C-alpha cells in the first residue's frame, strides 16, 4: 500500500496535518469529491419532503408519517443493498440502486404536485429505500486503503463523520431555500439530480474500490485458490458467512444507534414545526444547520486528536454528554420561545454528536468481518434510520397534538434512552472491548 509522505516536524498546523496525509494517497480526493456530492442530498430529502408535503396537505403529522415510512423502508432494504455492494462491488450495485431511488423521489414529487391520494405519498417515498449508503462505501474505501494504519483510520472516520455533518449542515439550508424561494418541489428535484451525479462520479473511481467479496472468498481448506461465489449461500467456515448482525457486541451498539436516530429524527421535524409556528419556516434550514456545524467542528477536532482508552469505554461518556447538551434546545424553546436562542442551543447541542458517532463507527468496524464491512456499517446506519423514523413520527405527532415546545422532550427522552442502552450494554459479556481506538 502506498504510504503518504511524512510532514516536516516544524509545520505549525498540527491539527491539519493528519488530514493532509489522508489525501496524499492516490485517488482519495477524487472519490471523496464524488461522495460529497452524493451525500449532500441526504440532508435535503427529508426536509424537502416535510416542507413539500406539509405545505401542500397542511399536516405536519402526515409529513412526519411519510418521511418515517420512507426511513423505515430504508432501514429494511439498506442491509440487503449493502450486502450486494460487498459481494458484487460498489460500482455494479450503487448505480442501479441510485436510479431506482431517484425515480421514487420524482414519483413523490409528481404525486404531491398533482394532488394524488395520501397513500401514494407513502408508496413513492418507500421506493427511495434503495438509496445506497454512500457514507458507508466511502468508509469502506478508507478501511481498505488504511487497513494497516489504525491512527489514520481514526482520522479518516472522523473526517467522514465531519463530512456527514457538513452535508447535513448545508443540505437543510439548500432544501429550505429551494422549497421556499422557488417552488415546494425544488428541493426534492435538485436532491435527486445531485444524488445521481455524485454516485456516478464516485463509482467511476475504480482504483480505490475495495475488492468485492464474491471475487475473493477464500476457497475450502486444501484448495488451490479462492473460489468465486455470487450466490446467497456460502460455506459456514468463510468469513463471508458470518453476518455482522451476529458479531459479539453488535446488538448493544445497534440499540444505541436506534436511540440516537430518534434524537436526530425528532429534532429535525420539531425544529421545522417550531420555526413554522413563528412564521419563519424559511429559517428552519439555517437553524438545523447550526447543530450540524457544531458537530462538524467537534468531529474534525476529535479526528486530529488521539482519544485515550478503548472505544467501548468512551461510548457511554459520549452519549451522556450528548444527552446533557440535548436539554439546551428544550430549555431555549420553553423559557424563551426565541428562534435565535434555539439556534444557539442547537449549535452547542451538536458538539457531542460527531464524537459519539465516530466512536460508534469505530466499534462497528472493529467487530465486522472485512469482506462484510459495508454491510456492518449499513446495519449501524439502519439502526439510525429506524430511530429517525420513530423520532420523526413521534416529533410530528407531539408538535401537532400537544405543542412544539413540549415536542423537544422527544429528543431528550431518546438521548436518555441511548444512555441507558450503553450503560446496560457494558454489563453484557458480549459488549465489545477492542484495544485502543
TrEMBL record:
<feature type="transmembrane region" description="Helical">
    <location>
        <begin position="173"/>
        <end position="203"/>
    </location>
</feature>
<feature type="transmembrane region" description="Helical">
    <location>
        <begin position="341"/>
        <end position="364"/>
    </location>
</feature>
<dbReference type="Pfam" id="PF07690">
    <property type="entry name" value="MFS_1"/>
</dbReference>
<feature type="transmembrane region" description="Helical">
    <location>
        <begin position="251"/>
        <end position="275"/>
    </location>
</feature>
<feature type="transmembrane region" description="Helical">
    <location>
        <begin position="30"/>
        <end position="54"/>
    </location>
</feature>
<feature type="transmembrane region" description="Helical">
    <location>
        <begin position="376"/>
        <end position="398"/>
    </location>
</feature>
<dbReference type="GO" id="GO:0022857">
    <property type="term" value="F:transmembrane transporter activity"/>
</dbReference>
<dbReference type="InterPro" id="IPR036259">
    <property type="entry name" value="MFS_trans_sf"/>
</dbReference>
<dbReference type="InterPro" id="IPR011701">
    <property type="entry name" value="MFS"/>
</dbReference>
<feature type="transmembrane region" description="Helical">
    <location>
        <begin position="317"/>
        <end position="335"/>
    </location>
</feature>
<feature type="transmembrane region" description="Helical">
    <location>
        <begin position="404"/>
        <end position="424"/>
    </location>
</feature>
<protein>
    <submittedName>
        <fullName>MFS transporter</fullName>
    </submittedName>
</protein>
<feature type="region of interest" description="Disordered">
    <location>
        <begin position="207"/>
        <end position="229"/>
    </location>
</feature>
<keyword id="KW-1133">Transmembrane helix</keyword>
<feature type="transmembrane region" description="Helical">
    <location>
        <begin position="281"/>
        <end position="305"/>
    </location>
</feature>
<feature type="transmembrane region" description="Helical">
    <location>
        <begin position="60"/>
        <end position="81"/>
    </location>
</feature>
<feature type="transmembrane region" description="Helical">
    <location>
        <begin position="93"/>
        <end position="116"/>
    </location>
</feature>
<keyword id="KW-0472">Membrane</keyword>
<keyword id="KW-0812">Transmembrane</keyword>
Amino acid at each position: 500500500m502506498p504510504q503518504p509522505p511524512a510532514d516536516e516536524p516544524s509545520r505549525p498546523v498540527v491539527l491539519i496535518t493528519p488530514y493532509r496525509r489522508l489525501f496524499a494517497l492516490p485517488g482519495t480526493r477524487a472519490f471523496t469529491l464524488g461522495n460529497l456530492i452524493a451525500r449532500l442530498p441526504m440532508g435535503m430529502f427529508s426536509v424537502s419532503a416535510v416542507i413539500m408535503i406539509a405545505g401542500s396537505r397542511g399536516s405536519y403529522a402526515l409529513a412526519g408519517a411519510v418521511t418515517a415510512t420512507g426511513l423505515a423502508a430504508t432501514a429494511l432494504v439498506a442491509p440487503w443493498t449493502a450486502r450486494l455492494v460487498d459481494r458484487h462491488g460498489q460500482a455494479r450495485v450503487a448505480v442501479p440502486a441510485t436510479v431506482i431511488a431517484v425515480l421514487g423521489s420524482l414519483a413523490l414529487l409528481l404525486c404531491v404536485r398533482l394532488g394524488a391520494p395520501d397513500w401514494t405519498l407513502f408508496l413513492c417515498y418507500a421506493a427511495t429505500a434503495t438509496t445506497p449508503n454512500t457514507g458507508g462505501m466511502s468508509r469502506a474505501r478508507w478501511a481498505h486503503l488504511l487497513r494497516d494504519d489504525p491512527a489514520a483510520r481514526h482520522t479518516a472516520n472522523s473526517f467522514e463523520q465531519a463530512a456527514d455533518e457538513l452535508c447535513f449542515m448545508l443540505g437543510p439550508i439548500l432544501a429550505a431555500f429551494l422549497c421556499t424561494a422557488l417552488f415546494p418541489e425544488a428541493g426534492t428535484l435538485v436532491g435527486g439530480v445531485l444524488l445521481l451525479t455524485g454516485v456516478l462520479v464516485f463509482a467511476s473511481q475504480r482504483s480505490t474500490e475495495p475488492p468485492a467479496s464474491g471475487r475473493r472468498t477464500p476457497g475450502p481448506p486444501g484448495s488451490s485458490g479462492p473460489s468465486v461465489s455470487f450466490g446467497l449461500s456460502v460455506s459456514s467456515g468463510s468469513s463471508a458467512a458470518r453476518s455482522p448482525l451476529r458479531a459479539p457486541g453488535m446488538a448493544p451498539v445497534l440499540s444505541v444507534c436506534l436511540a440516537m436516530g430518534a434524537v436526530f429524527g425528532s429534532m429535525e421535524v420539531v425544529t421545522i414545526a417550531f420555526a413554522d409556528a413563528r412564521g419563519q419556516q424559511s429559517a428552519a434550514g439555517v437553524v438545523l444547520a447550526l447543530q450540524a456545524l457544531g458537530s462538524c467542528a467537534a468531529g474534525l477536532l476529535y479526528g486530529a486528536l488521539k482519544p485515550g482508552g478503548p472505544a467501548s469505554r468512551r461510548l457511554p461518556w459520549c452519549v451522556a454528554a450528548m444527552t446533557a447538551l440535548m436539554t439546551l434546545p428544550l430549555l431555549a424553546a420553553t423559557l424563551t420561545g426565541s428562534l435565535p436562542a434555539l439556534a444557539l442551543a442547537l449549535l452547542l447541542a451538536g458538539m457531542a454528536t460527531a464524537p459519539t458517532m465516530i466512536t460508534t463507527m469505530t466499534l462497528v468496524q472493529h467487530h465486522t468481518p472485512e469482506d462484510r464491512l459495508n454491510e456492518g456499517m449499513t446495519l449501524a446506519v439502519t439502526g439510525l434510520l429506524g430511530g429517525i423514523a420513530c423520532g420523526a413520527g413521534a416529533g410530528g405527532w407531539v408538535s401537532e397534538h400537544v405543542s412544539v415546545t413540549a415536542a423537544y422532550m422527544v429528543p431528550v427522552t431518546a438521548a436518555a434512552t441511548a444512555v441507558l442502552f450503553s450503560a446496560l450494554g457494558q454489563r453484557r459479556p458480549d459488549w465489545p472491548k477492542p484495544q485502543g481506538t
